[in-house]
Amino acid sequence: MNLPTVNACLNGLSACLLIAGFLFIRRKNIAAHKRCMLGAFASSTVFLICYLYYHYQVGSVKFQGEGVIRTVYLSILLTHTVLATAIVPLVLLTLRAAFKDRIPRHRKLARWTLPLWIYVSVTGVVIYWMLYHGDFGP
After folding, report:
1. Which residues contact 138 (CB under 8 A, 6 or more apart)?
2. Among 85, 81, 90, 77, CA closest to 129
3. Does 137 map to a domain?
4. Which of 11, 25, 27, 45 is an S-S bond match for 124, by CB 3.0 to 4.6 Å?
């Protein structure tokens, strides 16, 4: 399995753990929620390390599609990149509030952090698919 595929799997795992964590907290299962969220944090951290390593070695990968699909790809890539940058401090602040048992602050932050983090994780998989498995070449 190549590193881009590993990265996509890590992003997908993060998204699944985030959704599971949300469902657990809605059912008041705090222990399961905590495990899922820490798992999502761990898989996202490993993803970031692998992603940086890969792109340090390879550089950027050019999208081969043209026309409308290129515009779609670049739109997804732009929103993904901006939100991926913003999500790091948001995740850290949200986790910090939880660890310090500042639950009202944790909830307030999580209302923003969770959907953005899920979006970043899912669009990471979409970008991978479009770059490496989409039939968009000329």
Report:
1. 64, 66
2. 77
3. no
4. 11
Residue 28 phi/psi, 5° resolution? 65, 25
Count how many Cα atoms sit within 13 Å of the Cα of residue 50 in the half-sphere of its side chain: 16
Q: State pLDDT tens for residues 48-107.
A: 999 999 999 998 889 988 999 999 999 999 999 999 999 999 999 999 999 999 999 999
* Residue count of the chain: 138
Query: What's the pLDDT at 1?
Result: 75
Domain carrying residue 51: 3-132
- Alpha helices by DSSP H, 27-135: 30-58, 68-99, 103-132
pTM: 0.93
Q: Is residue 138 in some structural domain?
A: no
Determine, yes or no, domain membership for 98.
yes
In the structure, what pLDDT confidence band is assigned to residue 137 with cuts at 50, 70 and 90? low
Question: Is residue 130 within 8 Å of 63, Cβ to Cβ?
Answer: yes
Structure confidence at residue 134 (pLDDT): 81
Domains of the chain: total: 1
φ/ψ of residue 79, rounded to 5: -65, -40
Separation between Cα atoms, residue 104 and residue 90, nearest integer Å: 15
